[in-house]
Amino acid sequence: MLWVFNLSNLNFNRNQLIAAYSIVALALVGVIVLVAKSGAFHASSEAPKFADVSVTEPSPLPSASQAASTKLCIHVAGKVKKPGVYELDLGKRVVDAIKIAGGACANADIESVNLAEKLADGEQVYIAPKGQIPPPVRSLVRGAPSGTSTASTAKVSAVPAGNREESGPKKLTAPGQGTVNINTAGLADLQRLSGVGPSTAQRILDYRNQNGRFKSVDELDEVKGIGPSKIEKLRPFISL
Asked: Which of 38, 145, 175, 239 makes a 20 to 30 Å CA pair with 66?
């Protein structure tokens, strides 16, 4: 760049020298600007790259309902030492429900119960006494919606809560099986009559309490829900 400073050796007048130096100065400024921009570009292109960091969300804690699902609420009734409602761990069986209720009484009919059957939340385990007349079809009673079908009565298992008649008094269906004295029978015995459920049996008791003893079978016609046709079907199984 020595030629820049030797411009004075040229045969330029004062004004020409000033113009020449101005042109050189502008050129130098332009070169400096271009160099500065080039350096900034390389600096930005070589900026450090940060590694991608993935964030893993923590697993949600179990809700209160999920925690509660590990427990069973069971009603143990009948011939056990401490009847009541108990809480057991999930997966427990009938034998565990009897143990937590203090064990079976001496006169408990354990043979009518499937001790190995698994329990479900909301069930009732009923232990009948030995020699109960009529004997229960099943002693383990499961809670279920009304109308749920059940297994064969030959198998000791669960009875839906909405279908209790199957585990209740045995119905009289043929002559010679016995009779029911409608003047002395209680609520359960009255239900042995075919077509007589808990509500009809209660109406028979209410009528008897209000009017005294039945004087004839035909007097049942005064009880709501019992008409002449039903009386004729029930007549062979009724005594006074």
From this structure: 145
